[in-house]
Amino acid sequence: MMRLLVTGGSGYLGAGILKRAPKTWQIAATYFAHPLAQEPAAAFRVDVRDAEAVNRLFEQVQPAVVIHTAAQMTGDQMMAVNAEGARHIARAAARAKARLIHLSSDVIFDGEHAPYDETAAPDPISPYAESKARAESEVIEEFPRAVIARTSLIYGFNPLDPRTRQMLNGEMPRLFTDEYRCPILVDDLADALLELAENDFAGIIHVAGAQRLSRYEFGVKLANALSVAPRFEPALSATYPGRRPRDCTLDISLAQRVLRTRLRGVDELVAHIKRLDA
To answer: Which domains does the chain have, with CATH numbers?
Structure first.
């Protein structure tokens, strides 16, 4: 029986992985600020900044595979959670001889040289991006045969992802027309990560959606798919205080060769939703 450990199990992606993992697997998941809502995973409250707590977790769970999604987007503990936490997880996974899949982000790039393939060197320009780039370095140093899966904007409909919910509620009044990403459905990403859990790929792999869209285009498509009037306006990223990467398009050709899971674009998913509603 596969023993899977998912860190960040109460997050949007973590919950998506737990939901789609095979029922025959023995599954454990960590949380910190928010308890797990997903069963039947065994739940462990663990602070990944605490190396001893991470070691105790691995001794108790004895995972064969670890999918490390736990991360923090903001705050003065962001570097500690993202980079030091990744080091603790990678070191424990290496010691346990477990397979490790570490989640990274497209924002580790400066956004000026897209599209980016797996050989592109990170060049972060924001504090969050710096923490994620540092996390990659820590994982590679501690566990060279780990999988580093870089992804993009994660969205979903059941339930709605937090970003889309905020957008539809009018909490994001401006969306940029000159900032490009490759949004991926949470189900597709979860399936790809679970597939990676069972194959022998090692190294960096870009797992994102097949369609490059501006933030504004993405918002319009989601609003139309959900039959909601857009409550946001187009804007340029220069209006935002602080540097942001303009184009983080990921080249996913390696993932398309390695994985059976289809990494669908937004238009394909929207068309599928409209067929279901018809």
So the answer is: 3-154+183-209 (3.40.50.720)
**Length reported for the chain:** 278
Q: Report mean pLDDT in 10-residue bins for the chain, 278 residues.
A: 95 96 95 80 94 98 98 95 98 98 98 97 96 98 98 94 91 94 98 97 98 96 91 90 92 98 94 67
pLDDT of residue 273: 74
Q: What are the two backbone dihedrals, phi and then psi, of residue 243, each rounded to the nearest 5 degrees?
A: -80, 140
Yes or no: say if 23 and 86 are a contact pair by the CB < 8 Å rule. Answer: no
Mind giving me the DSSP string for 28-74?
EEEESSS----SSSEEEE--TT-HHHHHHHHHHH--SEEEE----SS
For residues 142 and 51, what is the distance between their CA atoms, to the nearest angstrom? 13
User: What pLDDT score was predicted for residue 36?
Assistant: 84
Q: Decide if 102 contacts 86 (C-beta within 8 A).
A: yes
pLDDT at 110: 96
The amino acid sitting at 269 is L
Give per-residue burial for 113-124: e unless 16+ CB within 10 Å, then b: ebbbebebebeb
Tell me the pTM.
Answer: 0.95
Cα separation of 248 and 167, whole Å? 21
Calpha distance 161→76 (Å, rounded): 24
